Amino acid sequence: MLAFCFVISCFVNGQKLYIKTYGDKTKKALIFIHGGPSGNATLFEATTAQKLANLGFYVIAYDRRGEGRSADPDAKFTYEEAFQDLNTIYKKYNLKKAVLLSHSFGGLVATLYTEKYPQNVSALVLAGALFSQQETYDHILNSLKISHKGDSKTLNKIAYVEKLDKNSAGYRKHCFDLAGDNDYFKIPNPTKASKKLYADYEEGIFNKTNIRNKNAPLLFYQNEKRRNIDTRLSLKKIKAEGIPIYAIYGKEDGIFSSSQISSIKNLAGKNHFALLDNCSHYLFADQQKQFLSYIKKWLQ
Prior knowledge:
The protein is of the alpha/beta class. The chain is built from 13 helices and eight strands. The protein is about 45% helix and about 15% strand. α4 packs across α6. The two termini are about 20 Å apart. This is Proline iminopeptidase. Keywords: Hydrolase.
């Protein structure tokens, strides 16, 4: 029988970190690292966490310090702080190794953590994860120039964004706002299964706790020096050390160019890569059956 438990874990300073576990603690540990800054794990928990546990994983979902349900007015939102959160989880659950399943910005957190603490990671999974930030921003703006040729309002906004400091929170926000406004994060032709997953999430308890800290990106850019990075050298180093890297992306995820997808496929390796059709950024909900199938095949 699968174990299910809810845990709030405390930092040394008394700050509480939201953590929820799914499955049997004797099984292979898998930690989900959400996007952001300002994200949370609610959609993953509502749609996918228990299903991964049913496949034989001990799934740990959490919200980083100061994000989502881990409220902390003193959070700095740096990578080092995120590493402390992960080390707290390892210590709390007596984990020697774990799979890091990372989504979006969480891919940067997971990659840098794995590079620093390779002994703690049994495998790194990049699921719609960022790895070359400037290429993503450039792709969003350049692709919109093409698709909105003749649309002076959109083109003027793009021209404004291109003049901003590329290492600023404002530049990042405007790029992703433009992407969101143009449905770059949405599945183009929702399936019956994906419609139900998203509808159940919207109506369920997890969506009621879908907390977004709007100050998180501003504080990240204020406190973190590694603001606009390319982690492919780190990924190559991780792979060279023998840690398996798996990459799974949505074919219709609008924030990645075809050259980026080819790059991450070559880095992970053909047998460690999957590109899902009719799938965008939230691939664990867009094409859940395929997503779960690849995770099971790769990790078991």
